[in-house]
Amino acid sequence: MPPKVKAVPKTAPVKPAFDSTRTHRQYKEYMKRWEQINICLDGEEAVKQKRETYLPYPVRLDDVDKTDDAFLLQYQLYLEGAHFVEYTAEAVEDLISSAFRRPLELEPELPKELEHLDVTDLSKELVGTVGAYGRAFAFVDYPTVDTQPSAADDDNNAAYLNIYEPLDVLDWTETKRSGKSELIRVVLREIDTVREAEEDIAEAIYMYRELLIKDGKFTMIVHRDDRESVTYIPKANGSHFTEIPGVFIGTTSNTVKVDKSPVMGISNSNLKHYQTWADLMHVQVYTGNPQLVLAGLAAGWNKQAERNKVTVKLDASQVLALEGDNSSASLLEIDTNSLVHFRTLEVLEQSMAEQGAKIKSISKKSGVESAEALKIRSSASMSKLAAIVANVEDALNKCIVWAGLYMGETVTTQVTINKEFFAPAPDGSLLSSISEAEAVGTAPRGTAITYLKQIELVSDDKSNEEYLADMELYQPQLTSDIKPDGTDVKGGKKPEKKKENPTEK
């Protein structure tokens, strides 16, 4: 007789937690590229922690052999010999420094309620993020207890701008309404807390913001793994937002479409450079040191030496004695300068330098162009960096308006970022022409100073009027009583010319 089975009471189905693994199709497509750039930006230590992901061993082995202690020791030596030069990070830093070689402009100034926003730092972060990944998301928020518990005791709360790298923008949805694209959902990931796990490894605890347009109102749902989700509807000056106060920023446009990273090619070359360096050091270990070679030894000498535990040492304090008329010793030395690795490293470095320069400059046309044709083509072309700067400007201006709504202010401030990424080459003949035009009055006073500012030979810290005043202050005094036009300084009359005697030679 079969045993009786005790009936298990039915329980209510467990409500599934927020599924952070559900990501956008393009997120899945670009994720590995973004991770690679992120690792390259973090530097050598982060790259080496990925081990064979970015540094495969030069000899192909199966998975069983790779677990062998001897291989692990050998690979560790191979890994330590590698050197990762931070060309990717330097390329991004160069983009930022080129865009901000001149301070940005705010016209008019920000209202007092938004003075806490450091627009310069925010601009640099956005240019750097878009320059690195080709994409960023800027979101304007106001501190609430739901997202930041410390906000409950803070009387100085103010609207702020959050910038998210593409790896932290997990999903998004847009719709077309009246022929216009509208962002209706975005899922953002950010670190909520960090706790110490085993072996001193920090473990991040994530929080997820789900931004929605629901019933025509902007709604935010905050998800955490360790507590229930919280929903609230933000208000700005007593009114609801009818749009998500956030914007995607790309290299070509500020739409949800994912743009390619401007430095992806540099990142690929950077990793290839790292692998070539490791191979070079690996080869030099075995071929870079002189190898002692003994010739003319009797047949069977190696086996006899092994049996008798005889070893040959090369030491300056000892004498190596060889018997036999045909015995000889020599050093086998390989010229490592002829290794192809050096040429490969040089080619990769040149390629990365050219790719970095191309991001900042417009495409160059071969052949000679007229000045008018060059002007037309330049005005119609934009470098990648110029496009990034223009998109960052547009996004920042939107974000400042949203922040103003949170603070009860109507903001008209416009951000302008420098787009002259190179200092113009000085032109001596042009400067002479400008100076002559000033002297005869066909050009306004100070035109030459303006030109000197443009080619960065004179600082922008002082106005043209201040420079002109300084020049007049240090004008040398005339040492003669006769002015350059021939008039007498004292009497104001021209002196009479002495008549020549026609009889005198």
Secondary structure blueprint with pairings:
Layout: H1 25-42, H2 44-49, H3 69-81, H4 87-99, E1 105-107, H5 119-133, E2 135-141, E3 160-164, E4 169-177, E5 180-196, E6 202-214, E7 217-224, E8 227-232, E9 235-236, E10 239-240, E11 246-250, H6 264-287, E12 291-295, H7 301-307, E13 328-332, H8 340-360, H9 371-380, H10 384-406, E14 414-416, H11 428-440, H12 447-454, H13 464-473
Antiparallel strand pairs: 1-14, 2-3, 2-11, 4-5, 5-6, 6-7, 7-8, 9-10, 12-13
Helix pairs in contact: 1-6, 3-6, 4-5, 4-8, 5-10, 6-8, 11-12
Question: Could you describe the 3D structure shown?
Answer:
This protein is of the alpha+beta class. Among the domains are: 25-265, no CATH class; 290-333, no CATH class; 428-473, no CATH class. The protein contains 13 helices and 14 strands. Strands 4-5-6-7-8 form a five-stranded antiparallel β-sheet, with no helix packed on it. Strands 3-2-11 form a three-stranded antiparallel β-sheet. Strands 1-14 form a two-stranded antiparallel ribbon. It is flat. The model is unreliable at 1-9 and 363-381 (pLDDT under 50).
